[in-house]
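Sequence only, no structure available. Ideas?
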Amino acid sequence: MFLPFTNITTALASVGLPVMHPTGLASRSAMPVPPYPLTNSTVNTFPANLTISTNGECSGSQTCIGSTFGESCSEWGYCGPSNDTAYSGAGCQSMFGICSSSNSTSSGNSSTSAVPTIGNATITSSVSQSTANSSSMVSSTPVTSTTASSTSASTSASSSTTSSSSASTPASAPSYSYAPTSSTAAAPSASPSGKSGSNQPSDQYTQFVGTGSPSEGWPEQSAWTPFETLFEMNRQIMSDSCTQWNVPNDSDSEINDIKSAILAVASSSSIDARFILAITLQESNGCLRAPKTTSVDGIVNPGLLQTFQGSAMCNSGSATAPADVKTPCPASTIHDMISQGTMGTTPGGMSLKYALDKSGATDVSKYYKAARIYNSGSIASSGLLQDGVATHCYSSDIVNRLLGWSLGPSKCTLNAS
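Reply:
I predicted one. Tokens follow.
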């Protein structure tokens, strides 16, 4: 929940909130072969037992050093050229590649508490997770947006859809955004709105900025993809979502239990089932055995929605040390994961309901504002959903999931601005 980490293997020590968020399993395009020019760069001591990345992803057990994708590991867990600041700049994971010396995310701060451990290294964060949902499994370094589109709340949503089949590997992925991916999916046939009438995954992505108002181009609820279609578009993603943590993937029956739980909780809470599904995908890609994340003050955020102080989980371990892994994950536990993330576990604790109430909006923008609140605990004073700490692309990613984006990495560039 709170500041979802786009990569559970990294915690941020540069802000006052921990940013934990899910990592994507995006298919990747080949990058130029190293070596790359190394200017003002440093190489950290790397964890033991790392293997060279073969799919362009890094962190966890894979390093970019020696890979054909590039030798820098971006904040989102993707390898790229060390002379490209999108990879070696702000948020670069120095435990898994080469970073610019002034911008790397380090793990050696002895004044901080450990988040996950990898090999013989401990990744730390000095952030207190008391108000925001920063447990999603992808780490995101807070950056002040410098894009022209973020300077005014009245800025219209800008479209930045580019072909994912020809683009080079992005430095960032949607939110633990796990970047949705399916290497075996049929070619997307969705229209720009993301509603194709079929259950095939879609790589359609439009970057949204602003306050979440329809007057700025953010979609009305009627434009969202129907729940049944949306769920089936993401079924393959859910079925492969646990591979990265070396725990069993969701079975068909377990995925059906996720669907039933979402519909049941949506009915009892009056919160749109599609919104619950979108947040679930953003936080864990639907992996029932996703590892928990723990803040520096000991708050545990487990399960499908990386729930603040949640108790329902089918893996009580970390990304590198699974524990009490339940296979199958009981239907009752699945229901509790969805219920706790949606309705909360403590009065005033982060949940989808709390975030919706805190948004103060009554139109569809309440969902887009709530997504940002669930991610970071609050909305920046500018009112712009891409501003502030945590994952700047979070609300944009959620909107695109609601419209049907379910294939390929996020094309949002706000995290790298």
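Residues 345 and 358 are 16 Å apart (CA to CA).
Hope that gets you unstuck.
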